[in-house]
Amino acid sequence: MNFDVIVIGKGPAGLSASLYTTRGNLKTLILGKQSALIKGKVIENYCCTDAKSGEELIETGIKQAKGFGAQVENEEVADVKQNEENFTVYTDKNVYQGRSVLIATGKNRIKVPIGNIDNFEGKGVHYCAACDGFFYTDAKVGVLGYKDYAIHELMELESITSKLTLYTNGNELEINEDSRKYLRDKEITINIEPIQSVEGQEFLEKVIFKNETEEAIEGLFIAYGSASSIDFARKLGITIENNSIKVDEQQRTNVPGIFAAGDCTGGFAQMSTAVGQGAIAGQQIKSYLQSKS
User: Which of 79, 103, 104, 278 is the most exposed place for a label (fewest CB within 10 A)?
Assistant: First the structure.
């Protein structure tokens, strides 16, 4: 399925951008599960509207986007890859092709509940298989996760080493049938034991489980929960500063065709900011695609 614009994120930034891309006659797809905004019981500081719940505001935004022709899908994005002339976006249900991508997924607020993870970052613990997997040729490597995002990280690693383990940290697998088939066909080892901590001297050496058993390991790639804006950025070579996606005044990243807006770019984390950045991104995506025609 081909689109001019694929928006990753169903929050105010992505919805705002879609109003400009769709009215510019660009075929626009919006992907996402839930915006963090829906947790807001009452939003009182958004100009020119009465106080409403976050859920009401998002519902209104989705209705507007659909009204202008955007396709909105309740799907979780697991991976984004750049091809020669477009981008491929993999979700838990489908695969889409887009001429441009807007990352508008907000900030990743999931904390990995395992001791010592931070101590071994860059010393055995990594967050991007495409970036750092080559360090582990034929090594014993694990991926920490339980969704389709983790399966895509395993796929990145399979050409580097066959000694792969999926650690779910006690979580039940939440993956589609293609991912289940991949695990079966490749005979990937799955360890469901909850993890207490990771340990080692200068570099990662082992995983300690809560049942007091342990397992030797050389590398652990974190793909816990859903993929975040920073996860996509790392894989695509997008510049990151202060754990946020770096953009210019036109919401462009350093990778042509990829834009970002909202909380994932840092700054003032308010709905008004996200809507404004989304509007700029939508306009600039139109200009970018027109220049490519």
Answer: 79
